[in-house]
Amino acid sequence: MTRKHFVAIAKIITECREAYWKSPEAKDVGDATLDNVAYLMSSYLATQNPNFDRGRFLEACGIDRQQQRW
User: How far apart are CA 34 and CA 67, in angstroms?
Assistant: First the structure.
């Protein structure tokens, strides 16, 4: 997989997060779910490309560096 693929996946996760933000009652559940998806995806993507930057990917998914728990 290439950077182009990683960018597309991060964009999809971010767009899903933004959709949850429009619904206050779903925001916390949506954020937790998408955080888990992002972490699981980052683990897989790291196996696909030795140059994969997990921190940068998670940031692109809406998880700031202080929140990252991998």
Answer: 13
Instruction: Report how many domains make up the chain.
Output: 1
Do 13 and 34 contact (CB within 8 A), yes or no?
yes
pTM exceeding 0.85: no
Alpha helices in the chain (DSSP H): 3-21, 24-48, 54-60
- What φ, ψ does residue 28 adopt, rounded to 5°? -65, -45
Kindly report, residue by residue over 13-69, the tens digit of the pLDDT. Answer: 888 887 777 777 766 777 788 888 999 999 999 999 999 999 999 999 988 877 666
Domain carrying residue 20: 3-60
- End-to-end, the C-alpha distance of the chain in Å comes to 21
Q: How far apart are CA 59 and CA 23, in angstroms?
A: 22
